[in-house]
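re: ur question from earlier - yeah i can do the single chain one, its not a big deal. heres the input i used so u can compare w yours
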Amino acid sequence: MSIVLVHLYPRELGINGDVGNVMALRKRAEWRGLPLEVHDHEVGGELPASAHLVHIGSGPVSGQDAVRDDLASITPALRGWADAGVPFLAIAGGWQLLGAELVGLDGTAVSGPGILPSRATLTTGRRVGEVVADSRLGEIAGFENHGASIELLDDAQSFARVTHREGHGPVDEGVIAGHRVGTNLHGPLLPMNPAWADWFLDAAAQLAGLSPAAPAPALALVDERAAQSRAAVRGRLGA
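and the output i got, formated as tokens:
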């Protein structure tokens, strides 16, 4: 038995280094003795019969448009996985696509699968820069690059509270609902904040009926380097 990680649309939605999240999950699973299989789902492809973890990265509006019809066709499967407790990690544009609704620059609203309880509205302005935030697993850091305002629905909780950012004040960031997370943080998110990588892996392993082994020595070194990266971001922001 292996953890099945479904990576949605890596060609169209893989900018800002978000594929690094999948790489981090793959390596951390290896170092923790958890067999993991990555299934790249492309437009027109078939989903696996089951999944234990889903990742979707970010991409421009053209990339989102390219996958929209296929996303609609697989929405029943995605909803079924979400209802069964499968963890989802959706980054920026991917988060916009998995929400309940996406409003374009022309005001046209397109319904989404509602995997994440949020509504996104594209804007002409962008927020770009490094971020330090507080999350339920402690301090995190990353890089935001997005042009959308997002409303959380159904009393949803934010993923983190930004404490320091470039050119903007504190603000809530992202959304979390069960084990489903949407966020605008790149970096990539999981290599820089490995506590969250392990959080996703633990939930996926439980669904797959797997238990982690003793961690490999490489984990301590990687975690220390991630801590140094976060400290560097704090330093640059004067946090």
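Helices lie at 19-31, 61-83, 93-98, 189-192, 194-208, 218-237. not sure if urs matches, ping me
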